[in-house]
TrEMBL record:
Alphabetical list of InterPro entries matching this protein: AAA+_ATPase, P-loop_NTPase, Signal_recog_particl_SRP54_hlx, SR_rcpt_FtsY, SRP/SRP_N, SRP54_GTPase_dom, SRP54_N_sf
Record keyword Hydrolase present: yes
UniProt topology in membrane: Peripheral membrane protein
Example GO biological process: SRP-dependent cotranslational protein targeting to membrane
Designated name of the protein: Unannotated protein
Residues spanning the membrane: 6-24
Protein species of origin: freshwater metagenome
Subcellular location: Cell membrane
Length: 381
């Protein structure tokens, strides 16, 4: 009996030892794991959970813009996709004109009804009343001078007239020949895709061999700096930001000085876009323009970003921003999703400012230089 009790006791002790040996390593491994912390997308500081959640939303938005489905460290900026064609991306704008243009092309003579139908089609395409009337006046003169007699010939004259109006503009994005970094200021109301456009331009310029710094001067919009910082990381660009709600001019000035100290070629500067009809904002943008030119850099471009889907509202914005900051060019975003392609003609006609870049999709490679001839052909092809 004593022997049996001893054997039972030994078995119990061995069982306890084996059980402890199995559990302890797991506990030790668990104790070595650091507590989870929410971290900023731009630096290593610990941030509150609500800010981390907001940053995660921004990250998702930017990843969608870049069409990236792989980790940041695996992104290869040099992998350039094929340039999109206007013909393939302007389906909505072409569809808005196709019905009327098909009807006009089938006409055996050019009469009052033909002119009325053409006028309606151009206004619906958002060429604008003023530009449409001027365009029709020139077309009537051309029809008379060249003896045009049918609808097909009239449409040929319309294409030629539109191409003429869009030609003769210098669409090159300028870099300074002087010492110090070139500065490109981006202006526009909130929601037009300004910050995303800056990111795409940064990717484009880095691919072309420029060293780039992005300055987050839109200090009033929540998450604007985080969004631009992520684009800078993906493009391989430097990045400067300020405090939320801080002085935008100071951020731009610091960015230019930092670029000068680091021998960086180009500064891409984001600016505030809230309340485009607010006099104080326009005065602030004028200040940003002056300050950007005072330091070591040279402002060579002031680009207005417009959402093409807003049509004539974009033209109103352009007029207001032109008075404040002397625009050098326009970037039209979401042109692929708009039926209002005529806004391009209105901008050139009424403001004399060239459209330099257009967005034909969501990817970085879909922001392309504007080609007047290709654009006109895409509308009528």
């Amino acid at each position: 009996m004593t022997v049996i009790l001893i054997i039972v006791a030994v078995v119990v002790v061995l069982g306890l030892i084996v059980g402890f040996g199995f559990i302890a390593p797991r506990n030790r491994r668990g104790s070595l794991e650091p507590p989870s912390k929410h971290r900023s997308l731009v630096d290593d500081r610990v941030v509150p959970p609500e800010e981390a959640e907001r940053a995660s939303l921004v990250e998702a938005e930017v990843a969608a813009d870049l069409e990236i489905r792989i980790p940041v460290e695996d992104v290869v900026v040099d992998a350039v996709a094929e340039r999109p064609r206007f013909r393939d991306r302007l389906g909505k704008a072409r569809a808005a004109l196709s019905g009327a243009m098909g009807s006009i092309a089938s006409r055996s003579k050019i009469d009052a009804e033909t002119w009325d139908e053409l006028e309606e089609a151009l206004i619906l395409a958002d060429v604008g009343v003023g530009s449409t009337q001027d365009l029709l006046d020139h077309l009537r003169a051309r029809v008379k001078a060249d003896g045009l007699s049918n609808g097909e010939e009239l449409l040929g004259a319309l294409k030629a007239e539109m191409a003429d109006r869009l030609s003769g503009f210098d669409r090159e994005l300028k870099l300074s020949s002087e010492s110090g970094p070139s500065v490109w200021l981006f202006v526009g109301v909130n929601g037009v895709g300004k910050t995303t456009t800056i990111g795409k331009v940064g990717v484009r310029e880095v691919r072309e061999g420029q060293t780039v710094l992005m300055a987050a001067g839109d200090t009033f919009r929540a998450a604007a700096a985080e969004q631009l910082g992520m684009w800078a990381e993906r493009a391989g660009a430097e990045f400067v930001r300020g405090n939320e709600g801080g002085d935008p001019s100071a951020v731009i000035f610091d960015g230019v000085e930092a670029a000068s100290a680091r021998n960086i070629d180009l500064v891409l500067a984001d600016t505030a876009g809230r309340l485009h009809n607010n006099v104080n904002l326009m005065e602030e943008l004028s200040k940003v323009r002056r300050v950007a030119d005072k330091g070591a850099g040279n402002v060579t471009e002031v680009l207005l970003v417009i959402d093409a889907t807003t049509g004539q509202n974009g033209l109103v914005q352009a007029k207001q921003f032109t008075d404040a900051v002397e625009l050098t060019g326009v970037v039209l975003t979401k042109l692929d999703g708009s039926a209002k392609g005529g806004i391009v003609v209105a901008i050139h006609d009424q403001l004399g400012i060239p459209v330099k870049l257009v967005g034909l999709g969501e990817g970085a490679e879909d922001l392309v230089s504007f080609d007047a001839q290709e654009f006109v052909e895409a509308l009528f092809a």
